[in-house]
Automatic annotation (TrEMBL):
Protein name: HD domain-containing protein
Matching PANTHER family: DEOXYNUCLEOSIDE TRIPHOSPHATE TRIPHOSPHOHYDROLASE (PTHR11373), DEOXYNUCLEOSIDE TRIPHOSPHATE TRIPHOSPHOHYDROLASE SAMHD1 (PTHR11373:SF4)
Signal peptide: none
Native source species: Coemansia guatemalensis
GO molecular function: dGTPase activity
InterPro entries recorded: dGTPase-like (IPR050135), HD/PDEase_dom (IPR003607), HD_domain (IPR006674)
Domain of life the protein comes from: Eukaryota
Length: 498
């Protein structure tokens, strides 16, 4: 039997560059032959071992091929067509590289095969629970479809991990499953019996430096055509464990600052793009209309239903002839014909005004500031406060990183921002008040009413702070709509033949 298997696998091994099997016994040949390789545009050739393939070759994991990584932003950036499938494989690859690199550089860490296997599988399975259009599903749709229900894609990942193991009879120890789930969630607190530095690899709760971020930043930049100036491979090579925590060489301090800036820049320019947000609102509206008919939100507690829930839900709505779904079909048709909700106005919020704006500026208040000739209603208005930061809300993530010196690689210490660069930001978080409309023809009316509301808010703030100069919300002249603006009719742009 050994000879037969060696003969059968010889041809495939020759294709991979092996010219002689004489130095390999039968078991070695079989193990090598079970490894598969995929060519990834970000990381090059990635080896998929048998542990990984047990999960990859399942319907639950293959579902990730049908979930766009960028969600609604793909409708704005045509190159952003990549999916959660390749991101998860890339994350697993980097997770394996990091933990094996640490094992080679620091044998005293006693990293064993179980550690490597669990960290790799955590990277592979960390996004199993994402819903249609990625973060749109858990951040925008579920809170409105099922108010009061606390749910996130991490919860969904745990549910789908168990479902994948059970339905495909994957041979894995219960203790390993528990560790994989903990690694996906991340932890900054001691986990009994586990090496704490392993929790810094996939979902780092200490400072946000993890392989999930390494992969999606590089992959998203590559696909949308944005240049990235930081190099994650240097970070991986210049890291070591000190006191059960992954620390970095001091010379990587600016590289780390640049990574967090790149994250912020992607959120600012890509993930929170105005048109992408407008399309996101349309998709959420369509899903909310379809939810009572298709039971979309109920799938979050049923893994068999959730397994079938992908971005193709839009196609399901389009294919349906149910009269109850007509409004949803019309919304999707508007997206296809680029008749999308329109951006109206935005204001950068000073931190001290965020609570006041959140309480005062809403759809009803804007309607309350209409002029006599305006005819828009609450349904026409959408108010959104977009929160963008460097990864740790108002804090500088670099302040939470520990470093080591090339002169002493056993002692960790932090580095103050002024020693990284004198050009670092003063703030690491911003809130942007944005106003959209479902009815593009009423954009002028809504902007005028919103600015009257903002003017009243500024007056109220000044009255509460006599003798001081409080922060005001100032309209952006570049966004001011001309009073005679008329939206072009797309039909008029087409040539008329008689």
């Amino acid at each position: 039997r050994c000879t037969r298997h060696a003969h059968m696998s010889k041809r495939s091994m020759l294709r991979r560059g092996f010219t002689d099997l004489s130095d390999l016994d039968c078991d070695d040949a079989l193990v090598l032959d079970r490894t598969k390789y995929v060519n990834d545009p970000i990381h090059g050739y990635i080896a998929l071992n048998e542990d990984m393939l047990q999960f990859i070759d399942t319907p639950q994991f293959q579902r990730l091929r049908h979930l766009k990584q960028l969600g609604s932003a793909y409708s704005v950036f045509p190159g952003g067509s990549h999916n959660r499938f390749e991101h998860c494989i890339g994350t697993a690859h980097l997770a394996s590289e990091v933990v094996q690199g640490l094992a080679q550089r620091q044998p005293d860490l006693d990293i064993d095969s179980r550690d490597i296997r669990c960290v790799t599988l955590a990277g592979l399975c960390h996004d199993l629970g994402h819903g249609p259009f990625s973060h749109l599903f858990d951040n925008a749709f579920i809170p409105r479809a099922r108010p009061g229900v606390e749910w996130s894609h991490e919860v969904g990942s745990e549910m789908m991990l168990h479902h994948t193991i059970d339905t495909n009879n994957i041979d894995i120890d219960d203790a390993d499953v528990r560790l994989i789930k903990q690694l996906i969630r991340g932890s900054s607190r001691r986990v009994d019996g586990e090496k704490m530095f392993l929790f810094d690899i996939v979902a780092n709760q200490r400072n946000g430096i993890d392989v999930d971020k390494f992969d999606y930043i590089q992959r998203d930049c590559y696909n949308v055509g944005v240049r990235s100036s930081y190099d994650f491979s240097r970070l991986m090579l210049n890291s070591r464990v000190i006191d059960d925590e992954i620390c970095y060489n001091t010379k990587e301090s600016f590289n780390l600052a640049e990574m967090f800036h790149t994250r912020y820049s992607l959120h600012k320019r890509i993930y929170s793009h105005r048109a992408a947000k407008a399309i996101e609102f349309m998709l959420v509206d369509a899903l909310l209309v379809a939810d009572p008919v298709l039971g979309i939100s109920q799938a979050i507690t049923d893994p068999q239903l959730y397994q079938m829930l992908t971005d193709d839900i839009v196609r399901d709505i389009e294919r349906s002839a149910a009269p109850e779904l007509k409004e949803a079909r019309d919304l999707i048709s508007r997206i296809h014909t680029r008749d999308i909700y329109k951006f109206v106005d935005e204001f950068l919020l000073p931190p001290e005004l965020v609570p006041a704006v959140g309480m005062v500026v809403n759809e009803a208040e804007i309607v309350g500031h209409r002029s006599d000739n305006d005819d828009f209603v609450e349904r026409d208005v959408l108010v959104d406060v977009c929160r963008i930061h460097y990864g740790m809300k108002k804090e500088n993530p670099v302040d939470h990183i520990n470093f080591y010196s090339k002169f002493n690689s056993t002692e960790k210490f932090s580095i103050a921002s002024e020693f990284v660069s004198l050009c670092v930001p003063e703030k690491y978080e911003e809130h942007i008040l944005r106003i959209f409309t479902r009815t593009p023809a009423k954009r002028n009316q809504i902007q005028r009413a919103a600015r009257r509301l903002i003017e009243r808010l500024n007056t109220d703030i000044a009255a509460r702070s006599p003798g001081s100069t409080p922060q005001n919300l100032t309209p952006n002249r570049g966004l001011t709509l001309p009073s005679n603006l008329v939206l072009a009719d797309t039909k008029r742009r087409r040539l008329q033949f008689h």
